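User: Run a structure prediction on this.
Assistant: Running it now.
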Amino acid sequence: NQLQPGDIIGIATTIPGLDVTHTGLVYRTADGNIGFIHASPAGRVTIARDLQRYARHVRHSLGIVVARPVDPGF
């Protein structure tokens, strides 16, 4: 399955004892790219227009973990 807007992304890490170093949400740009909305260390909302490029440049990045909220059907 492809990433969808609203998917929760965790940046997986090679740091021992830690699974994920950073989280955010997927969004789709006007030109169809997959972007990443997250909080910066300074506490500001940050938008990365290319999730793949962002994840490649995160120190100790191993890849991504994806969670997709679903309607519980209540």
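The first strand starts at residue 8 and ends at 13.
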